[in-house]
Amino acid sequence: QVHLAESGGGLVQTGDSLRLSCVSAEHTFYNYAMGWFRQAPGKDREFLAAITWRTKNTDVADSVKGRFTISGDSATNTMYLQMSSLKPEDTAVYFCAAAAGLTCTGFGCYLLSDDVIAWGQGTQVTVSS
């Protein structure tokens, strides 16, 4: 059974930075493709970033590239999503996820919601204007 525990959400102002954390068992990070999604009210869940734990290779969605960074700390079994230059449109519930694998095309690699086998409980990020 895969258990993911997120933390770090909150209320920030436009332009602020915020770091989300996702903790799980060591084997989770090595056995699954890990990443972050978000879901804003009335919208579909959106892929943000993925990390391959063994190599720490990362893939970031174009919509947040340059502002969001995904990373991992093997010593603490923690995955991070560092968010900077936050905008009101970044307001959403953010989820960490463990997926069966990455999907890669000529445009890059990403996680598909349908491939996710476990979700964190979600953490609210609200960016005020």
Can you give me a brief rundown of this structure?
5% of the residues lie in helices and 52% in strands. The protein is built from 1 helix and 13 strands, in the order E-E-E-H-E-E-E-E-E-E-E-E-E-E.
Beta-strand content estimate: over 45%
**Molecular shape:** globular
Percent of residues in helical segments? under 10%
The total strand number stands at 13
First-last Cα distance: 40 Å
Q: What is the number of helices? A: 1
Mean pLDDT: 95
Uncertain residue ranges: none
Structural class category: mainly beta
Describe this structure in words.
5% of the residues lie in helices and 52% in strands. The chain has one helix spanning 26-31; strands spanning 5-7, 10-13, 18-23, 33-39, 46-52, 57-60, 68-73, 78-83, 92-99, 103-105, 108-110, 116-119, 123-128. The strands form 3 sheets. Strands 2, 4, 5, 6, 9, 12 and 13 form a 7-stranded mixed beta sheet that branches. The longest helix has 6 residues, at 26-31.
What order do the helices and strands come in, and which of them pair?
Layout: E1 5-7, E2 10-13, E3 18-23, H1 26-31, E4 33-39, E5 46-52, E6 57-60, E7 68-73, E8 78-83, E9 92-99, E10 103-105, E11 108-110, E12 116-119, E13 123-128
Parallel strand pairs: 2-13
Antiparallel strand pairs: 1-3, 3-8, 4-5, 4-9, 5-6, 7-8, 9-12, 9-13, 10-11
